Amino acid sequence: MESNNLITIFRAHLHYNQTDNANHFQYMEQLLLAQVVGALLGFLGVLLGAFGAHYLKRRLSEDQARSFETGVRYQLFHAILLLVLSFNLSFTSPLEGYMVSAFLWGTLLFSFSIYGLVLSEVYGRKWRFLGPVTPLGGLLLLVGWALLGYSFVANLF
User: Fold this and answer.
1) Residue 124 region by backbone torsions, left for phi larger than 0, else alpha for psi between -120 and 50, else beta
2) Residue range 69-123, pLDDT digits in tens
3) DSSP class of residue 51?
4) Regarding predicted confidence, which is higher, 59 or 8?
5) Long-range interactions of 45-51: CB distance < 8 A, separation 24+
6) DSSP type of residue 140
7) What is the pLDDT of residue 157?
8) Which residues are within 8 A (CB) of 148 and not within 5 positions of it... i.e. 6 or more apart?
9) 6, 11, 72, 155 — which has fewest CB within 10 A?
């Protein structure tokens, strides 16, 4: 009789550890994604900023240069934000994962669609299909900021 109780306790402990390990893995995956993507976006932001300021300087109109700079600026702001969030979030709630995903996808869609629009126009074939992608990326950035604000006040109610 006692051995059956030990087996039951062992099985319960094993199941708890497997569940805990799965949650820990998911946490680490989200954390690593936010950190790696934040660092990569920061690296690419500096690289693309230098590319725009030096190589493209003579090739871009004033409006194109402003658009390109806007893409770089938003990319760098949100790269820093992703890094700050990755060091401050616990990633224990789905809200935090949604927030990071909104910032990640919003930055990619917003900034890189601007780069595509500007560069394709400079090289003679404007990719008009990217036009609606930019506001979609901006909307995702707004969702990310709204979720961040909500996370601050969610426990007050």
Assistant:
1) left
2) 999 999 999 999 999 999 998 888 899 999 999 999 999 999 999 999 999 999 8
3) I
4) 59
5) 45/72, 45/75, 45/76, 45/79, 45/111, 46/76, 48/72, 48/75, 48/115, 49/76
6) H
7) 78
8) 85, 99
9) 155
Residue 9 has pLDDT above 70, yes or no: no
Token pair of 67 as six digits:
């658009």
Q: Which residues of 104-117 are buried (b: 16+ CB within 10 A; e: fewer)?
A: bbbbbbbbbbbbbb
Domain boundary assignment for the chain? 28-156
- Whole-number pLDDT of residue 5: 63
pLDDT at residue number 26: 74
Who contacts 76 (Cβ-Cβ below 8 Å, separation ≥6)?
41, 42, 45, 46, 49
Query: Which 3 state secondary structure label does DSSP give 127?
Result: coil
Cα gap 5→27, rounded to integer Å: 33
